[in-house]
Design a protein that fits this description.
The complex is a heterotrimer of chains A (264), B (758) and C (154). With 264 residues, chain A is α+β, with helices and mostly antiparallel strands. Chain A is 31% helix and 27% strand. Chains in contact: A-B, A-C, B-C. The interface between B and C is large, with 67 and 61 residues.
């Protein structure tokens, strides 16, 4: 096992081309668990902690470019918090303060867990993922980037560089169900937005199907929306909860989410 | 003789004497709140826990464990592992030098699996290597040829399946003779006329999941060969001498050749009564001639100790219209898992306290614990009383509803008092203020409901932001419970203490106390020092590190007995030392053994006392809980808890409050979230990601009142305090949840599905 | 592989295995066992340290990632013979029982008070929600943080 620590994005991309099997590490909140529990022994670990291009965020003509290394704690801070309120709410539900100081949006995308907390709010905001390799970069719509449970559209020589979002300004919220009042993996979660400009009700759920999924309906169809969200889910029974409960909870969350956003 | 272990020295330095200058602490006498003597090193990181130890030339031990719940072992291939880099030893059952089996009470568990594994995580082989990763890689190269067998996983069917222990290890120990396969112990308590009819009756079937102690410091220790064939084992444990007495025969050593030293203990709660790494570490150390440290990871820890017995309980309560209990009938089924551990005593406790702290003239209580291929169960805080308290308190609430009597009044009406007779036939003597704790807890006023809007942290679902008030209902619940203090049923229960009195440099009297009572976090170190200061009338008292080498057995830090027993022993030894010094005028060193009042076995056929009391003493508690429940999502926020507890006499009030708060939190965990889940005997949630324990956002403010009614037989009038809060809190939380939801909620931990009615 | 880092103000070097956590390196390579190994998956906070001034779980930091960075552990909080106010408050409030969670909680509480000297009860609870304690039920831990914040002598 070896650890490579590039100091620039170019160097990182070059190393990823040389070692396509290298496993990137940023916040370490997923990979370190696999290492500590002896579940993974990658030949090469690519430490992205020293790549300045992955840090921070910028705004250009209304488009936010959020570095893959942005932590949840940073997503909770102003002005990002006001620009992407549901993402900030979701970030507050991630693990513990320690995890939020360390875990990154890029990591959440890379792991592509159905329970990834940042994914529903980013889906609701039509985020795109910017990925790059030595050959150049490309943008992938988030819903196309998430291809299966813990599977994404990244090619072996590519790295996740940024998340691109044009904040809708729509009232939005995020809710996450867990059996404990802090520090839980989502039994199920839901981001909801009421986008009056586009005339859309938008919701994306987590932990209720193989990938987080976006559900859209016309503004006028608020009454049927909770049922629509619940029926779009394909939850399973597992140690964290039952399929029946997840479907039920999504319906409740959708009702409450709409109520919050419509009141805003 | 033994190799020095530098970090242990640091821990000793942390005992009184190190707290200097501004930070010197008033350590107090009996009855005074005193800051912990180990408090400062524990906050600075200097305190050495068992996993912190190191020694020159140390190797890391690793345990290969079964991935099957039940399988025959056809062969174990270790040759590839032996040659791996850094590996110094690979051992199997063939290498166990002495007895191949051990056990806390019955030697039914192989040191390393021989021809069969009986639970998921059973130890099969050992590796010692220079780095833990080398040990892990070598372990991965050990091939165990398993032939999977059908696991016994349903306790209801266990008595009809092939016996997992055909030699019946627990038979012939004076228990009811029950020839059914896989019975660890069955017991009947028959009292009065169990067929007596009341005016009303209520019935229920209750279920309790497997709870884990989830102590934060995983099992760990360091074994150091002494160069003369013996071994020093520095370990986190609850009972040094019983460890020694299990370890020595398996190593084919004399007891004196095995010295167990207490290392820093990161919590115990019953989970360190049985052995974990002790024999394994010693085998590797003796084999390699080098110190060997074994530290379990969290996943391994879930298979490294016994858990709280899961239970299925049927109960029927009959009462007169005025609310008086007429008869209680209960059937209790406990799943003991693969090995006996202390299951036989848990059965007896479940039976003996099944009716709660209430006067019941007619009762029929049947309790059975079975072997299975589920995770082994044994001691955990509350020890059989937690499960039945959950059932009897649910029944009392049902009865109150049927009779339209206030639940608190119903409990007061039936509250036991000294002079009453328990279902075992034992007459209550001494202190037992049941009505007083019920009245005091009931009198505590919960806060008014808080206005909306609130930060979601102050609503059910907490940081998940799931409600802004929608679906939230408030409920207030109440429960009372009790449990025995000290060991019971004729066990010869003792504790030794040694006191050395000597003149210091300036001629002033100083004392050094030895006691092997395990400081597991409960604060017995302070108790020992407070008692010694009180008895000797001096300040300069130090407590030597606990070790089997220096003093006799203290018994276990369990059964809420350690404070009682250590206080009794230290008091006795101090008085003897003073007397001897007075008589001889020279430095003295005396050891004394304390015994609590004797107990007698229960009749195996009737569960009635024989010859004298079966239990030494009892402690009770009552608790009021305010919960807010999101009835649409099934999520809960506890708002407030008020409790009153019978403590006899608080030796260190601050520590007693700490025990009550912490014990309550563990009961909250069982009520709301804690359960080891299994599938076919395999644990499916062996991590802190999926085995959840309460956080700061799950435990509400707890107002506790101490009811001090001195126990005549207890030193200074004290009783143990660790278990009653855990016994009563699960039941009290569920009572509040029922009040909020109107649902029966007959299983803990309660699942959101059940609250919403799915 | 060799790493160089600043720990509690001192330059340190260590040879680590590539898969080793910062926690293991601190405990087993650098003689600083104060940070505890309770879950090794970021679910208990017992291994909390400050990495470049931010509270993190050292079990989730690859030792190699700490190369060139600054770490403060529980051993680095107390000054010359003076306990950190949070440490002192923990002892006085009775917030310590078995103590295995204590180092992580002390670091987390010190971090909170550094950012927010007068935290509300909710703020304290949220800030410490990643630190599990199995013994105390948290009440006295919350009391200790309030005590430290109040500056009462302590």
């Amino acid at each position: 096992m070896d650890v490579l620590t590039p100091r620039s994005l170019d160097e990182a991309l070059r190393l990823k081309t040389e070692h396509p099997d290298a496993v990137p590490i940023a916040g370490g909140t997923d990979l370190m668990v696999a290492l500590n529990f002896d579940r993974e022994r990658p030949g090469v670990i690519l430490n992205l902690g020293e790549v300045p291009e992955l840090r921070g965020w910028s705004r250009d003509d209304g488009l936010l470019r959020i570095g893959a290394g942005l932590t949840y704690a940073e997503a909770m801070a102003e002005p990002l918090r006001s620009l992407l309120p549901a993402l900030a709410e979701a970030s507050r539900t991630v693990g513990s303060p320690q995890i939020r100081n360390r875990g990154t949006l890029g990591g959440n995308l890379g792991t592509a867990s159905p329970a990834g907390d940042s994914l529903p709010p980013l889906l609701v905001e039509d985020a795109e993922v910017e990925v790059a390799s030595l050959g150049g970069s490309r943008r992938i719509a988030l819903h196309e980037f998430l291809v299966g449970p813990k599977q994404n559209a990244l090619a072996p020589e590519e790295l996740i560089v940024a998340v691109l979002v044009r904040p809708s300004g729509a009232p939005q919220t995020f809710m996450k169900v867990g059996p404990r009042n802090a520090m839980v993996i989502a039994v199920c979660s839901l981001a909801v937005a009421v986008d009056r400009e586009r005339g859309e009700l938008r919701a994306a759920f987590g932990s209720a199907g193989p990938v987080p999924l976006l559900v859209i309906a016309p503004l006028a169809e608020a009454d049927g929306f909770p049922a629509l969200v619940a029926s779009a889910a394909s939850p399973i029974d597992d140690v964290r909860g039952t399929a029946a409960y997840r479907r039920h909870a999504l319906r409740v969350l959708a009702v409450r989410g709409l109520e919050r956003c419509l009141a805003a | 003789m033994s190799a020095p272990v530098p970090l242990l020295v640091a821990r000793c330095r942390a005992l009184p004497g190190s707290a200097a200058g501004k930070h010197s602490l008033e350590l107090g006498r009996v009855g005074e709140s005193a800051a912990r003597v180990d408090g400062i090193p524990k906050t600075t990181g200097e305190f050495a826990y068992s996993s912190d130890l190191a020694a020159a030339g140390m190797l890391w031990g690793h345990t290969v464990r079964s991935r099957h719940a039940h399988a025959r072992i056809r062969g174990i291939e270790i040759s590839e592992a032996v040659g791996m880099p850094g590996v110094h030893a690979v051992l199997t059952h063939d290498d166990v030098p002495g007895e191949k089996r051990y056990g806390l009470e019955f030697p039914d568990q192989p040191v390393l699996a021989i021809d069969r594994v009986r639970y998921f995580g059973e130890a099969v082989a050992l590796v010692a290597a220079e780095h833990p990763e080398q040990a892990r890689r070598a372990a991965a190269k050990i091939t165990v040829d398993y032939e999977p067998l059908e696991p016994v996983v349903d306790p209801e069917r266990a008595t009809e399946q092939e016996p997992l222990h055909p030699d019946r290890p627990t038979a012939g120990h004076g228990y009811l003779d029950d020839p059914r396969p896989n019975v660890i112990r069955s017991m009947v308590v028959r009292h009065g006329d169990p067929d007596a009819l009341g005016d009303v009756s209520v019935e229920g079937v209750y279920e309790v999941g497997i709870q884990d102690q989830a102590f934060l410091g995983p099992e760990s220790g360091l074994a150091v060969p002494d160069g003369e064939g013996g071994i020093d084992i520095y370990v986190a444990t609850q009972w040094l001498h019983v460890d020694r007495d299990q370890v020595a025969p398996c190593l084919a050593l004399e007891p004196e050749q095995v010295r167990i030293h207490l290392a820093g203990v990161g919590g115990a709660f019953g989970g360190r009564e049985d052995l974990s790494m002790q024999i394994h570490g010693a085998m590797l150390a003796l084999h390699t001639g080098r110190p060997v440290k074994i530290v379990y990871g969290r996943e391994e820890s879930f298979t490294g100790h016994v858990h709280r017995h899961p239970a299925r309980i049927w109960a029927e309560h009959r009462a007169a219209l005025d609310g008086r209990l007429v008869a209680v009938r209960m059937r209790i089924l406990l799943d003991g898992g693969a090995y006996a551990s202390s299951s036989t005593a848990v059965v007896a406790n479940a039976c003996a306290f099944a009716c709660g702290p209430y006067r019941v003239d007619n009762a029929l209580i049947e309790s059975t614990c079975v072997y299975s291929n589920n995770p082994p169960c044994g001691a955990m805080r509350g020890f059989g009383a937690v499960q039945t308290c959950f059932a009897h308190e649910a029944q009392m609430d049902k009865l109150a509803a049927v009779l339209d009597i206030d639940p608190v009044e119903l409990r007061l009406l039936n509250a036991l008092e000294p002079g009453d007779v328990l279902p075992t036939g034992q007459t209550l003597t001494g202190s037992f203020p049941v009505a007083e704790v019920i009245r005091r807890a009931a009198a505590l006023d919960p806060p008014e409901p808080e206005e909306l809007p609130r930060d979601p942290l102050r609503l059910p679902g907490g940081s998940g932001n799931t409600t802004h008030g929608q679906g939230v209902r408030r409920g207030i619940g109440f429960a009372a419970g009790f449990k025995n203090i000290c060991y019971s049923e004729g066990f010869d229960d003792s504790c030794a203490a040694r006191v050395r009195l000597f003149a210091g440099g300036a001629g002033e009297l100083q004392a050094e106390v030895h006691c092997a009572g395990a400081e597991v976090g409960q604060g017995v170190t302070n108790v020992i020092l407070q008692v010694a200061r009180t008895e000797l009338g001096i300040e300069s008292v130090v407590l030597a590190p606990a070790s089997t080498a220096d003093v006799g057995s203290a018994g276990s830090a369990s059964a809420s007995r350690m404070t009682w027993m250590a206080a009794g022993a230290v008091q006795l030894a101090c008085r003897a030392a003073l007397e001897e010094r007075e008589r001889t005028g020279v430095d003295v060193d005396v050891e004394r053994v304390y015994r609590h009042p004797r107990t007698w076995p229960l009749d195996p056929e009737t569960g009635q006392i024989t010859g004298g009391p079966a239990h030494v003493s009892f402690a009770c508690a009552a608790m009021k809980v305010v919960a807010e429940v999101d009835v649409e999502l099934g999520l809960t926020r506890l708002v407030w808890i008020g409790t009153a507890q019978d403590v006899g006499k608080a030796v260190n009030p601050q520590a007693v409050y700490g025990q009550i708060e912490g014990g309550t939190a563990q009961g909250i965990g069982l009520a709301l979230m804690e359960e080891i889940q299994t599938r076919g005997g395999l644990i499916t949630n062996a991590s802190f990601t999926d085995y959840l324990i309460p956080t700061t956002l799950d435990v509400p403010p707890i107002v506790a009142e101490l009811v001090e009614d001195p126990e005549p037989d207890g030193p200074y009038g004290l009783k143990g305090v660790g278990e009653p809060p855990t016994v009563v809190s699960t039941a009290a939380v569920l009572s509040a949840l029922r009040a909020a939801t109107g649902r029966e909620l007959a299983r803990v931990p309660v699942r959101p599905d059940e609250i919403v009615g799915l | 592989m060799r790493i160089e880092l600043t720990v509690n103000g001192e330059r340190q070097e260590a040879d680590v295995w590539a898969g080793e956590s910062l926690l293991f390196a601190l405990r087993e390579r650098l003689g600083l066992p104060g940070s505890k190994n309770a879950c090794e998956q970021g679910e208990c906070g017992s291994c909390s340290v400050l990495l470049d001034g931010r509270l993190v779980c050292s079990c989730l930091v690859l030792a190699a990632q700490a190369d060139g960075h600054e770490v403060v552990t529980v051993e680095g909080l107390a000054g010359d013979g003076e306990l950190h106010p949070v440490q002192d408050a923990f002892v006085r409030a009775g917030a310590v029982q078995c103590g295995f969670c204590t180092p992580g909680l002390v670091v987390a509480a010190a971090d909170l008070l550094q950012r927010s000297p007068q935290p509300s009860d909710d703020e304290i609870r949220e800030a410490l929600s990643g630190n599990l304690c199995r013994c105390t039920g948290y009440q006295k831990i919350l009391d200790a943080v309030s005590l430290a914040a109040s500056g009462a002598d302590a």
